[in-house]
């Protein structure tokens, strides 16, 4: 079973969930807004992807940070602290599947990895 992490009202997450539902793929959903994220979870993901890929620097949450706050994100430890405090800054969705981790929505990648 897939485990999907994200925010329900995020358009990218909606696309991913629609894809999974339409392709009859079983998943559980973890809502960052309601359930947050732990440092342990972030460290687990960082064993599979670089910490920088988890930080969504294109989103409004990142853009709202002060320059000092942005400059303080220099490694996994500082990034995780910021991501725990600002879960909407995590690249979404994060999908855990049997062979690894997928970040974001890319139909071609889903077709390749989730079938």
Class by SSE composition: alpha+beta
Poorly predicted tracts of residues: none
The major sheet is characterized as: 4 strands, mixed
At the first level of CATH, what is the class? Alpha Beta
**Beta fraction of the residues?**
15-25%
CATH topology name: Glutaredoxin
Describe the 3D structure:
The chain is α+β, with helices and mostly antiparallel strands and 115 residues long. It has one domain: Glutaredoxin (3-Layer(aba) Sandwich), CATH 3.40.30.10. The protein has eight helices and four strands. It is globular. The mean pLDDT is 97.
Provide a short characterization of the protein structure.
The chain is an alpha+beta fold and 115 residues long. It is built from eight helices and four strands, in the order βαβααααααββα. The protein has one domain: Glutaredoxin, CATH 3.40.30.10.
Identify the notable features of this structure and list them briefly.
alpha+beta, Glutaredoxin, 16% strand
Itemize the secondary structure elements and their pairings.
Blueprint: E1 2-6, H1 11-22, E2 27-31, H2 32-35, H3 39-46, H4 51-54, H5 60-64, H6 67-71, H7 76-85, E3 94-97, E4 100-103, H8 107-113
Helix pairs in contact: 3-7
């Amino acid at each position: 079973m897939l485990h999907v992490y994200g925010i329900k009202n995020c358009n990218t997450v909606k696309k991913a969930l629609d894809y999974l539902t339409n392709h009859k793929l079983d998943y559980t959903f973890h809502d960052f807004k309601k359930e947050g994220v732990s440092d342990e979870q972030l460290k687990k993901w960082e064993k599979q992807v670089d910490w920088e890929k988890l930080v969504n620097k294109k989103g409004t949450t990142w853009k709202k940070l002060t320059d000092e706050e942005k400059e303080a994100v220099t490694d996994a430890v500082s990034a995780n602290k910021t991501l725990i405090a600002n879960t909407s800054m995590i690249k979404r969705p994060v999908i855990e599947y049997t062979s690894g981790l997928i970040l974001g929505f890319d139909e071609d990648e889903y077709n390749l990895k989730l079938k």
